[in-house]
Structure formats: C-alpha cells, structure tokens
C-alpha cells in the first residue's frame, strides 16, 4: 500500500485477514453475486458483446491474469469471498454442467453493461440483465444444487445462510437514461418517474431471490456517476463532479433504503444490508488524500471509443494511488477499502456490516 495510507485504514484492512487466519471454517457456506461489470468475474467472455475485459492490462495484478474482471486485480466480490473464507466465485457461463453440479461455494451471475431493465446496455451487445441472472440462479437451485443435499430442508438451510450480493443500476443510467441519442427513456420519463420504475423492478427481483431461498442480502446503491472519469471527460470537467448527473442518480438512491426496509418487514427471516457506494465514491473523489489516493483519473490508457483500457498498453506504475482503474471501474485498491469496511466497519454497509450479518 502507499506510504500515505492512513494508519487506521491499514489496521482496518488487516483485521479481516487476522480474523480469517483464526477461523477454521468459512463464515458462510456460499456467496452468490448478481450485478454488472463492477463485480463481473468473466461472464461477458462468453457473450457476443464489445464490453469485455479479457485482455491486458485488465488483470495485471490478478494471479490468473486477465479473466474478464473489469479492474486490475480483485473485485469487491473477490475480497468479500476471501473475508468469508470462501474461494473466488466462478462465472456461471464459464462452468460446465458437471462443474455447476459440484459448485456449492457460490456462483457469479454478473454481466458487464447489464442493468435492472432488460434494454439497458444492449447497444454494445448481449448482456445478462438482472432478470436473466435470477433465471440462471433458479436453474442452479432447481437442477444443480439439489445434487449436493439429501433433503430440501438441508438445501433451504444452506441458502438461508449464504450471502447474496446485488450491485446493479449503474447501466440503467450510463447505458440507458443518460444516452438520449440511443434510448428513449429520458423522453418517456422524468428522473423521478424513472427512479421509481427501477426501484419497483429491483424490489420484485429481490423478492424473486427470496422466493428461491435467499435470506441474507447485501444490496448496493448506485455510485456517484458524476464523479467517474467518464462523466468528467464527457462534461469536460477538470475538478469536482458532474453534480447534475449525481442529482439524477440520487433519486434512486434516496428511495432504496425505504424499499429495503419494506422488504425486511414483509419477508420473514430476511435481512437486507444497504451498501453505500454513492457516498463512498463521492467522498473518495472529494478527499482522495484522506484514503491514500493521489489520482482521480484512470490508471490505464483509455480507448475513448469504448471507455475501456487500450489493449496491451502499459498502465500507471503505482496502481494503489488511483481511485479508478479505467473510466468507470474501481481499482483493486478502492475495491479493497470498500470490501473491508463493508465486512467489518460501520460506514459503507448499514445497519449491519457483513460480519454482523453472518452472526444473525
């Protein structure tokens, strides 16, 4: 880590690793991941899309090299798996039927450019919208997981103790509502109406996961998109954030906590943790030095026709100094800070952190 990394954050990052070193078994039986490119572990490698990260310099700090992860190393989900004492969660589309039948520590269904809405992100090719991801999980529950359990009760107990991460919604704005040249959603709905549509849709999606056996949820709001290098480039800003974009996204984020509380109250034995990526990214952007960062820009050299890294072009040397890896995806260092605080801290995941969620 950079020498400027604050001491209290260093100790925070070391705590889960110390905790795991003293654990003899995983804290959860499995981790299931739903989302977009921020947590995709390789599903888009198997889809007809231009939104791929299976080339260098993506994965430059990942032991297996480029795998389809849209960052230089670990995603948030990778760090969370480690903190839970689980192996990295494999992409669903990368597993054979035999592998799917044997995998009981979790599966990743996330897909780059995917959104809550079916049409989001489709301009650049095929993706797995949240509904499709849940359909694949249903297939997992109905056809593959039962082979590992003697009774339905054992399977339901396993699912009830597993962790379900949902990080979705970014592309419903970046690759839908905020692209009026390609999508008509901003003509059909004002920002308040659109956020309401997304919240209604994801509420049903979460209920569907509950009906399939999920009980422990970690659901993230949408990050401060106006602070990403992509939006700063589009708006020709050299400092601050595109606050008009942040205000639009905030409408969804303001409605999410109440919606999760409604689900907590109505779905028996469920627990919903809210992950605050918006506040996290906004604070990083305004106070980078506080967290040991020195650069708000992307670490890799950008191809602005795709907003992804140029292939085989050397990125920045000190990759712990950058908040973002490319124009919209977090660096491994940022993912580490987010995962660490969500797991054992008090700020990014509320009203419980993930360690407390495991103890419920």
Description:
- The chain is of the alpha/beta class and 360 residues long.
- The protein is 41% helix and 9% strand.
- It contains 13 helices and nine strands.
- The protein has helices spanning 7-21, 76-84, 97-102, 130-144, 152-161, 170-177, 185-188, 191-211, 229-234, 243-266, 277-286, 332-344, 354-359; strands spanning 31-35, 163-167, 216-220, 271-275, 295-298, 302-303, 308-309, 322-324, 349-350.
- Strands 1-2-3-4-9 form a five-stranded mixed beta sheet, with helices on both faces. A two-stranded parallel ribbon has the order 5-8. A two-stranded antiparallel ribbon has the order 6-7.
- A hairpin with a 4-residue loop joins strand 6 and strand 7 (308-309).
- Helix 1 (7-21) packs across helix 12 (332-344).
- Residues 1-14 have low confidence and may be disordered.
Q: Summed up, what is this model?
A:
This protein is 41% helix and 9% strand.
Helices and strands, with pairings:
Layout: H1 7-21, E1 31-35, H2 76-84, H3 97-102, H4 130-144, H5 152-161, E2 163-167, H6 170-177, H7 185-188, H8 191-211, E3 216-220, H9 229-234, H10 243-266, E4 271-275, H11 277-286, E5 295-298, E6 302-303, E7 308-309, E8 322-324, H12 332-344, E9 349-350, H13 354-359
């Amino acid at each position: 880590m950079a020498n400027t990394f604050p001491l209290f954050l260093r100790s925070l990052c070391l705590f889960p690793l110390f905790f795991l070193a003293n654990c003899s078994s995983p804290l959860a039986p499995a981790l299931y991941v739903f989302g977009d490119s921020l947590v995709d572990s390789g599903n888009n490698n198997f889809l007809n899309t231009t939104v791929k990260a299976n080339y260098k310099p993506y994965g430059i700090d990942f032991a297996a090299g480029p795998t389809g992860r849209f960052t230089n190393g670990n995603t948030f989900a990778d760090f969370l798996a480690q903190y839970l004492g689980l192996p990295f969660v494999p992409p669903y589309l990368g597993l054979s039927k035999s592998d799917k039948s044997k995998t009981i520590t979790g599966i990743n269904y996330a897909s780059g450019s995917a959104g809550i809405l079916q049409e989001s992100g489709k301009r650049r090719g095929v993706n797995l919208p949240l509904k499709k991801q849940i359909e694949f999980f249903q297939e997992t529950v109905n056809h593959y997981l039962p082979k590992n359990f003697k009774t339905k009760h054992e399977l339901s107990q396993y699912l009830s103790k597993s962790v379900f991460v949902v990080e979705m919604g970014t592309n419903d704005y970046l690759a839908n509502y905020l692209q009026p040249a390609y999508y008509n959603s901003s003509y059909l709905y004002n920002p308040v109406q659109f956020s309401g549509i997304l919240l209604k849709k994801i509420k049903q999606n979460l209920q569907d996961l509950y009906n399939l056996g999920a009980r422990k949820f970690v659901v993230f709001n949408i990050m401060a998109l106006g602070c990403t290098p992509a939006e700063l480039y589009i708006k020709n800003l050299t400092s601050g954030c595109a606050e008009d974009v942040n205000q639009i996204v905030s409408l969804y984020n303001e409605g999410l906590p109440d919606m999760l509380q409604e689900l907590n109250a109505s779905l028996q034995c469920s627990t919903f943790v809210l992950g605050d990526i918006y506040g996290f990214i906004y604070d990083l952007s305004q106070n980078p030095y506080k967290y040991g960062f020195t650069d708000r820009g992307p670490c890799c050299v950008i191809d602005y026709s795709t907003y992804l890294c140029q292939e085989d072009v050397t990125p920045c040397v000190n990759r712990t100094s950058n908040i973002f890896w490319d124009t919209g995806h977090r660096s491994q260092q940022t993912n580490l800070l987010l995962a660490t605080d969500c797991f054992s801290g008090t700020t990014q995941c509320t009203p419980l952190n993930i360690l407390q969620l495991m103890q419920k």
